[in-house]
Batch of 4 targets.
Target 1
Amino acid sequence: MTVTARGLADTTTLNNGVKMPWLGLGVWRVEEGSQVEQSVAAAIANGYRSIDTAAVYGNEAGVGKAVRESGVKREELFITTKVWNADQGFDSTLRAHEASLEKLGLDYVDLYLVHWPVKGKYRETWKALVKLYEEKRVRAIGVSNHHIHHLDDIINDTGVVPAVNQVEYHPLLSQVELLSYCKSKGIQMEAWSPLMQGNNLDHPTLKELATKHGKSTAQIVLRWDLQHGVVTIPKSTKEARIKENADVFDFELSAEDMGKIDAMNENRRFGADPDNFNF
């Protein structure tokens, strides 16, 4: 698949008609206060329109402050946050959503996600998100770190298909079956830690393609995401790197290039397995 995105303003259309930018800024492990405020401000100033945070990141207040002070109209931005595991369950999820809005200082978020499929809770949590969506309190709802069987559960329970599934996705964990399933259901897949948390960016295949295209290995990986139809949210706190991560719209990987990166897959996770986590 070749994505026709030509810049940071370009979007994919979610299954409810809402438009979501193909590339955004992730703020996992970015400190609350000046660090996250400066990162978000730099991203927005350089054309980013999508910011991804979560309750557990502890930096929603800083994200919201930077958004409000950015000078960009709220409706031109796409803000994502997530309900944390300890807050899952029906009523507690509704309260968690309110708490996130209060911290962000925003009237709404564009995308609200179930952060992990907590056993015995994720199905009720999803029902709470459906309620929020039906009451027009969020523009779109989705999940994070959900395997196919988790997705089947929540779709069968409610008849509501998530707009997004945000998962660990990178050349060493290409999740071919999950991506195929999501495309078949109209679920937009989104990559967290697309740059493998800084691991293996010196892989010979990536270096070869970086030389061929005159790009960094990170840019090669992000372009690979986009050409597989996967939204990507690389994290950085440095303005130069934030700019570099977005400079992926002026070249295209060939089918042969894509195949070489696909062949790097080792089903290797740097994060937890959604079927086996204890937090």
Target 2
Amino acid sequence: MAMTKLRGVAPATALLAALTLGGCENATRTERNVGTGALGGAALGGLIGSFSGNLGWGALLGTAAGAGAGYLYEQSERSSDRAYQQGVRDASRARRRGY
């Protein structure tokens, strides 16, 4: 009986995933990184939580931790980008001055 109830779940899940990912087309780099971190955190948190019988709480806490990690990763990437651009500007100035 339980198996017949779950037959429609897989196509519905695939449709939901496709619609959700379709909404990411115009997302900024920050939104993509935070979303990816949240998704990965939810999966890992749910997996870990399932071992202790707390799948929902594990997924919820994993989502929050993953989103935070995605945001911190994005800030690190922005910092690296700024440092690179500053190096390019400094090298350009040095070439003009003949160093």
Target 3
Amino acid sequence: MLDVDALLADPGVRIVVCCGSGGVGKTTTAAALAVRAAEEHGRRTVVLTIDPARRLAQSLGLTELDNTPRPVEGLTGDGDLHAMMLDMKRTFDEVVLSHTAPERAKEIFANPFYQAMSSTFSGTQEYMAMEKLSQLRATDRWDLIVVDTPPSRSALDFLDAPARLGRFLDGRMLRLLMVPARAGGRSMFNLVTASFGVFSKAVQKILGAQLLTDLSGFVSALDSTFGGFRERADRTYRVLQDPQTAFLVVAAPEPDAVREAAYFAERLGAEHMPLAGLVLNRVHRSELPDLSAADSAEAAEKLADEHTLTAQALQVHALLMRQVARESEVSTGFTDEFPQVPIAYVPAQPTDVHDLTGLRAIGAALAAREE
């Protein structure tokens, strides 16, 4: 069994990353872990969500979340908790401002290519999540940082995208486009055409002349920060491989979700990321586990005429026990493939979790040491 309290109380664990497919309660799990770390273990905790949904803010009693950690009120214990939601463009702006002179930063912000890349470019969100995580860690303000990653398999872009974007920003093509700025301001197209001829025409045809001009201007303005993007991404990537980080894969006892969980576990192992365990949410249990579905259904049939309510209760129990059996079979598929990965089981809740009381209940369930 996964010992969640030991994980949250361990001063050597500074980062907990919750990953998993969509719709399995990942955001709620991240919030519940953060609340428990603050209340039960006295840790200075911040929870960062990359999911733009408002569930985290609502459950923590906040009207909204943004790129700045906001204090969560109403906690007990000696710890404290802040929550925030990643604003990738604002984070990108912060990176540029911190590594570039104000006038050069202004030039970058006005560039159409930068405006597009900082808002919609593939991999930017995940790269900026890495940047924000790095910023939070660098302040040394927090004992524990809990990260709620985007839903679905793309959550592992949290690992992949920074390296891809770093290679792009640090790559040969962009360095080639920087040549005009280093050549005394001659037109890029004149210089490239003179040097490469057919290559220039092909690039212009693929990208479009205006985009290529914007891109060249962006790279020229960004010259002072070159090398920093990949270096920072690599540094944060190494942090995620360090024992101070713990990955929790979150799933529900459903075939698709458990298959995704297995994919995550396999990838994390291949990338040498410290997988602490699996959180299996919305698990059904019965107070009468020894009364099988078959026996319950048979008894319901015998009592149907004379004891209607009892028969109906037995029928409901039979349905529940069948569901318990299906869920057990599904989860066994994961445990058979990854026997070394400990699991925490969270019972299905009668209502949606929407406040601190509900988060505390989830946290207590996560910390329970019995299946």
Target 4
Amino acid sequence: MAALQPPVCDFGQQAPDFNLLGVDDRMWSLQDCMGEKGLLVMFICNHCPYVQAVHERIIKDTLELKVLGVNSVAIMSNDTINYPADCFDNMKLLAQQSAYSFPYLWDETQHIAKAYGAVCTPEFFGYNADYQLQYRGRLDASRKETAPDGTIRELFEAMKLIAQTGQGPQQQIASIGCSIKWK
């Protein structure tokens, strides 16, 4: 479970499309997920301690972003044979227990994680309303432990800026987390 840091934002890169099964048993596309002012694409999973450390903050921030016209979607791309905690039934259970306000989608083939260039969980991709990448960074200064209250909400502030201007911040700090568990 090595900690990995993904590359920084490639501004303007178009969001890859997808058609993935959600925990609500519905198929979701990129267009279905897009908000009026943008979209936050999150690669997460159930078992990663880095995700668990920010789980409550993800829930809070996505609710607040929705009010700003930015929708969110979470994608789980891990190998579920070797990591059964991330299986589809457990994804459903976590989403229900946590009252997710966003679709939680299963990338069973791992093609979508590869299309996005995702390397770790959690990993955050922020798009403007034109489907152009404007943020690829961390949620905040949390690691395997939740950062203290009062920590700068880097992801939230970046997505707020994208909602207001269509542009992300020039300064971004890469996310850190567990590697995606490739098959």
